[in-house]
TrEMBL record:
Coiled coil: none
Keyword NADP attributed: no
Pfam families documented for this protein: AsnC_trans_reg
The keyword DNA-binding belongs to this UniProt entry's keyword annotation: yes
Keyword list, A-Z: DNA-binding, Transcription, Transcription regulation
Natural source organism: Pseudobacillus wudalianchiensis
Family matches, as SUPFAM superfamilies: Dimeric alpha+beta barrel (SSF54909)
Domain called HTH asnC-type: residue spans: 1-65
GO terms for MF: sequence-specific DNA binding
Listed name of the protein: AsnC family transcriptional regulator
Length: 147
């Protein structure tokens, strides 16, 4: 989104928006910019994404933080969240295949002393991510036939 787009949305000048963005970057409020890629449109891409529910035994004095830090340092991990509910950490990983992710879970994640159990969910299709819709509704031009 450009400064011009934002200025129209909030009713401020483009220069004011640019100054605001610079101030937010300096204050580390805006910490990273990224491109959002629709990998389904890349012909040779075989990327696999999985969300892993992790139950953890918290450590005295540090809680879940130390375990979360150990997990987010693995190169396969793209995000880690502390959750409420049935499990403690939600870990998103990416790999070249389901086998690669399975090896990550069995050889790196599950063997951590604090990890009690894991449940892995493989992403089958992405419909919406970061507010962006990936698949627009297709118009069905077929004729309705009923018995």
């Amino acid at each position: 989104m450009t400064a011009s787009d934002i200025s129209k949305m909030i009713g401020k000048s483009e220069e004011a928006v640019q100054a605001m963005v610079k101030k937010l970057e300096e204050a580390k409020v805006l910490v990273h910019y990224t491109a959002l890629v629709d990998w389904s449109k890349v012909d040779d891409d075989q990327r696999v994404t999985a969300m892993i529910d992790v139950k953890v035994t918290p450590k005295r004095g540090v809680g879940f933080h130390e375990t979360a830090e150990r997990i987010y340092r693995f190169k396969e991990v793209s995000s880690v969240y502390l959750m409420s509910g049935a499990y403690d950490l939600s870990v998103t990983v990416e790999g070249k295949s389901m086998n690669e992710i399975a090896r990550f879970v069995s050889e790196k994640l599950s063997v951590l002393e604090e990890v009690v159990s894991t449940t892995t969910h493989f992403q089958l299709k992405k419909y919406k991510h970061d507010g962006r819709i990936f698949e627009e509704k297709q118009i069905d031009n077929r004729i309705v036939v009923s018995p």
